[in-house]
Specification:
191 residues; 26% strand
């Protein structure tokens, strides 16, 4: 699969363009994540079981893909730069939990990205335009996912992140115009 292996020439060329000689591991991951999150529009929901997945070239050209295609694109871009990235099948919170003893492939309804370089590992999902690289969208915190690695699939714990009190940032600006209409902008995030 060109997504998983990162062998597609379009993925290699695009990732080199995005990274522009960036050498730090975490900065490479962040730049590729932000590109997929911000530059590829999220299309309609597609199940990984029932829908045909577009090619990397098609998704890049149209700048549009399903949530699963966005994650597969991220995996391909990362792997094209020899950053170990793998798909993880999950059942989102609104879809419900699955049995670790007898999991069936149809209990999973989403796919996210697992990055592991030996000393650091983290989960990513560029499908939500408001999620920073450090956090999964809230629907993804579903306790466990099925990590599809090259050896043998295995369960991966998806823990809710611990956030220290000093890492939260919130800013708001509000104005009332002459007609009495409130105009406000708020930003909430992690430092």
């Amino acid at each position: 699969n060109p997504f998983i292996k990162g062998t597609d020439k379009h993925l290699k060329n695009l990732s080199e363009h995005i990274l522009d000689n960036e050498i730090q591991f975490t900065d490479q991951v962040k730049k590729l994540y932000q590109f997929v999150r911000d530059s590829i529009e999220s299309g309609s929901y597609k199940s990984y079981l029932s829908s045909k997945i577009g090619t990397p070239k098609k998704i890049i050209k149209k700048r549009k893909g399903s949530k699963i295609e966005k994650n597969l694109l991220l995996i391909g871009l990362l792997n094209s730069q020899r950053i170990n990235a793998y798909p993880v099948l999950i059942s989102t919170r609104d879809h419900g939990r699955f049995s670790l003893i007898h999991p069936r492939v149809d209990v999973f309804n989403h796919l996210i990205t697992f990055v592991d370089n030996g000393s650091q590992s983290f989960l990513l999902d560029p499908s939500d335009s408001y999620s920073p690289v450090e956090l999964l969208p809230s629907q993804d915190y579903s306790f466990y996912g099925l990590w599809l690695n090259e050896n043998k699939p295995e369960f991966l714990e998806i823990g809710i992140p611990k956030v220290s009190g000093d890492s939260w940032a919130e800013t708001s600006h509000a104005e009332i115009d002459y007609k009495g209409t409130l105009h406000a902008v708020s930003e909430i995030g992690f430092k």
